Amino acid sequence: MSYADEFSKMKEGFDMGQAIAEADRCLLCHDAPCSKGCPAETDPATFIRKLRFRNLTGAVRTIKTNNILGGACGVLCPTAELCEKECSATGIGQPIAIGKIQRFLVEHAHETGFEVVESKNRRTEKVAVVGSGPAGLSCAAELAKEGFPVTVFEAREEPGGVLRYGVVSYRFDMDFLAAEMADIRKLGVEFKCGTPIDGQNGAEDLLKNGYQAVFLAPGLWGAVSLQEKTDIEGLYSSVSYLEGLRNGQLDAFAEKIENKTVAVIGGGSVAMDCVGSAIRLGAKDVYLVYRRSYTQMPAEEDERIEALQAGIHFILLNQPVGYVTGDDGCVKGLRLRRTALGETDASGRRTPVNIEGSEWVLPADMVIEAIGNKAEDPSPTWYPQVKLDEKKLIKVDPNTGKTSMEGIFAGGDIGRGPALVVNAVQDGKVAARAMKEYLG
């Protein structure tokens, strides 16, 4: 059986009538708080105002000028915790559905062939961008709009980074990504895929080979694990699992999951993608294991509710501590220890405290760890002159994207750690502004 239909398309967004009706609810605030709540400066107050007065062209132009990945952010951003949380309409009812309006406007532009962003006169200073995730794409687009020749080097065979390889297709499909990528290509950005910059001093060599500035945005493709030994049959990281679903291994995973018990460790959006895809691949039972409570899960509320409605079993206040394997080396279960909530920690959530003597085993045929990403091991040799912190993240000036080496900038997860798409977009914009100034 093929499960391709279960993963083919994401849910439909607003149509024209729904988008306009929603925009008509806007209070047209002066000094609108929703715009202040957008980390990427997409300016929802302006594009909603323009839509309300039926200026669709101006609304789309506002989005794409401010955020070349405005469509992706409209789909993937946790808007309920960002711009919509700041919406003044919250005080009298529901906040404006900003993310859905944003997605509609970008889709409308794609469907009608409206090209909203143009490049200025060409400059001669060449720029290299390493990595084609949200930060790299944002930086490349901003510089291309200013007329700089930009080449994006991507190690994988297709561009998009986490947008392509880290999100399930029923939440963000390839057609939508292709349309977003087309907007960037139209600016003149050149992509060299299957071209890793992994040789000794590779980043520095770019500066010697005709590029006047370099932006590093390789992302975080290493996976955090419960233990050092990860070569257990049936144990996957969320990185390898989700990339596999996008990389032609859908039916192969279905064979492993169908009518089996799957446990996913984690409580964020990535974990929700893992449990949701497992249930779509025919798993008999899917367990979401999280060490804190339901309300302290970082996943959005609608994601949690959707998972419950899909039949996912939530095992909360349980800390995974190891795995049970059989004589064949395959995973047979997940060892858990019950927890209680202690004092509030730096994240603003209460710390889980292990309850002694409460260990038990959850039987499972497959376990997926969705507990975080990290810089890949070993330490990179292709930018050895760039200073790193103790987590092997690049030390970056958050106001400029500058690194410790002249001419090399960085941003996205490799600089700030795992974060939202919208944060990566802003990192690319910030670095592009500084790079423009650096290039004179």
What does this structure look like?
By secondary structure, the protein is α/β, with parallel strands linked by helices. The chain has 17 helices and 15 strands. It has helices at 16-23, 33-36, 44-52, 56-66, 70-76, 83-86, 98-112, 134-145, 162-165, 174-185, 202-208, 238-246, 250-257, 269-280, 301-309, 413-416, 421-438; strands at 127-130, 150-154, 190-193, 213-216, 222-223, 235-237, 261-265, 285-289, 313-315, 318-325, 331-344, 350-363, 366-369, 373-374, 408-410. The protein has a 5-stranded parallel sheet, sandwiched between helices. The chain has a 5-stranded parallel sheet with strand order 6-13-7-8-9. The longest helix is centred in the last third of the chain and has 18 residues, at 421-438. The protein is globular. The chain starts with 15 loop residues before the first helix and ends with a helix.
Estimate the strand proportion.
15-25%
Assign a percent range to the helix content.
25-40%
**What is the averaged pLDDT score?**
94
* Structure annotation, total helices: 17
Structural class by sheet pairing and helices: alpha/beta
Assign an overall shape: globular
Q: CA-to-CA gap between the ends?
A: 58 Å
Low-confidence stretches are none
Major sheet? 5 strands, parallel
Identify the strand order in the major beta sheet. Answer: 3-2-1-4-15
Cα Rg: 22 Å
Number of strands: 15
Oligomer description: single chain
In brief:
This protein is of the alpha/beta class. Helices cover 35% and strands 18% of the residues.
